[in-house]
Amino acid sequence: MVIISQDMIKQFQTLIESVDEPLKNTYETLQSKDIQLRRWFGFLKQEMGMSRRPTKMSAQILLDCLEWRIQNEIDKILSKPIVPANFYRGVRDSQLIGMSGYTKEGRPVIAVGVGLSTYDKASIHYYVQSHIQINEYRDRVILPAATKKFERHISTCVKVLDMTGLKISQLSQLKLLTVISSIDDLNYPEKSDTYYIVNAPYIFSACWKVVRPLLQERTRKKVQVLSGCGKDELLKIMDYESLPHFCRRTGSGSSRHSRSSTDEDNCFSLDHGFHKELYSYINQQAEALESQAALIKHKSFHVAFPEPDADDEKIAQTIESEFQKYSDQNGVADKLNDLTVNEDKQKK
User: Fold this and answer.
1) Are residues 109 and 60 part of one domain?
2) Domain boundary among 72, 95, 113
3) What is the DSSP string of 190-203?
4) What CA–CA distance (Å, rounded) separates 256 from 197?
5) Assigned domain for 208 exists
6) Rounded distance, CA 317 to CA 329, Å?
7) What pLDDT is stored for residue 16 in this prediction?
8) Residue 14 is part of which domain span?
């Protein structure tokens, strides 16, 4: 257990007060200064084994995050819509993520369709932009609203990862998924309490046994692989209305558009309340800053992202190796040669 003293928080606060004005300004956009410092310091203590005070290295990690926000104009990303609307729909339909409700303790329930996301309708930059927009909307809008609604400070969420449809051919997504994971690790640490994995096929189960020991302990402890659709276990922490649509089925498995759920129930659908509110919020922010003429220009909001580090590449190579073994054993003809995301697949 990591114990964060008030003295430690004061030391980090002093650090923030001593930096240049642009860094201070972007830090002000983060949810709650005291809570933010506690979250960062807890993350750093676990990562680096710090005992009493911030070190030069640990302070630099926080400053690097703030620099990243400035250089990539992250504070403005919620005023940068992905346009036109039909192209945005294509991004959303191929990057399945949404919010289905709240746990009984008030934490937002974020659902991710890992197995059925294709990431084939745009370049990597659009998917990174979309992912960061959801992160920022969560931190700036959803979490403060949850804090007010449940009358207690809410600073984290839970994620339910649907593995339905996971296939060997999805190895082509490894680069993109690693990029997104790296962005979260470096700039949005400790925002998820638990990762619940549901509808896991044999492919995942076999690979998980190998990958699990490679993960950092703090991440490993947060992952829970549930039986089938996970309905019974998830109902212990949330009401039925907050269950993601793919967890409501009696049997295992799910589908992108389950017959038993409407588009309003499907948290991946643009007709779901979460996505309607997100889409409306981004466009309102854009209208406040730019003219309508500027909005119709079709281009992505490029965000710099780090190259995968050695540990990420090791995990990716292990996954590839295990899938290759499965492919060889079952005579599956999926080609595993092209493991990069096509960055030129953009609509002009």
Assistant:
1) no
2) 72
3) T-EEEEEEES--HH
4) 16
5) yes
6) 18
7) 66
8) 7-72
